[in-house]
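A common beginner's mistake is to predict each chain separately and then try to dock the pieces by hand. The better habit, illustrated here, is to supply every component at once so that their relative placement is modeled jointly.
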Amino acid sequence: MASLREIRGRIRSIQNTAKITHAMELVAAAKMKRAQNLANSGKPYSNLVNNVIRSIANRINADSHPLLARTGGETAAIILFSTDRGLAGSINSNLFRELSSLVGNLKFLTLGKKARNFVVKSGKNLLADFPLSDSSNLATVRPLASFIIDGFLKREFDQTYVVYTEFISTLKQIATIKQLLPIISRGILEEVAKEAETTEKLEPLFEPDPDTVLESILPQYILMELYQILLEAKASEHSARMVTMKNATENAGELVDDLTLTYNGIRQEVITKEILDISTAAIALE
Amino acid sequence: MKLEIVTPEKIAYSEEADQVTLPTADGEITVLPGHVSLVTQLLPGELTLKKGSQNIVLASGGGFAEITGKKVAVATDLAQRPEEIDEKIAEEARKRAEEALKNRERLSEEEFAITAANLQNALAQLRVKRRHRR
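With all components supplied together, the output reads:
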């Protein structure tokens, strides 16, 4: 049986760990709130841009801009949004598991140390690694956006997928794969075909002309998509960390309770033994 | 018709409106209900909308608008009412951007484009603020 001193030491160390996890929980909670607000306030814009692109796709030729559609080609660029730090539950491992469903010639672009290390360790083709800062703003994704648009136009890859953790709620985040390029994915085409049966097909006017408009809208769309994804990935990370740390703190509390019980049991036993010893000695002296 | 003005930060307007005037790449256009379908590029400038007897002016940034008969959707990176604009901040932004543009050779093409856009936005803000001072 463990000695009293050992148990006391263990209780103390668990209490210290609990203090740390509790502090991390509070920090994550504060960051989570900010990140969630940002992610939620960005949603309407990204939805609107999405809808506009969709309704344009419905009515123009897919080959009117090189970013819109491309057939064939095996090479895909995968943008992997992970976290810089760990202790956020299974968020990164879920993300990496999701990758197994992607096949073909894959090139990786990573954000976050965890993704970079994973890609390097598993011997995949790492194209570029982008820094992830705590203050996420448009400047974080701008280089990434121009990198993939460039690469796509130069035919270094034929599709681009984003793998990230979609933020649903504080308790629920889902690892998701989303096609970014070409913009008109098979999914959209099918949906559009369905919608087209019900809505009348109107050729929209473009001002000044389709090329200029598409040239300015499409890169902006890619940028905003990436930005929204970044915000969601951040919100997911902080939510996951908050929940994980909350659980850790609670588990530590349970452990301490358990150990305290054992500790008191042993202490009681020791006291009983001592009393027995003393009283036996007293009787022996009489 | 339904009018929706959205920026990356917020929904600036989402209500019925009687007419809206947009600063497009080809000059200002005014959209009334039943307008033909149109997708147009927006430049930083002044966006005006009418709802009943109410007139609302917004400083708007670059972006685009999709117009269908029943609905106008505006996606822009700036949409502020005159009372929301802080003249000092806008003025500083303008100065900073102008300063940066003087050293054009030091900027990459992309930085130049971003700075120029910032300058345009600041100018639009100042213009709207000064014209509609209460």
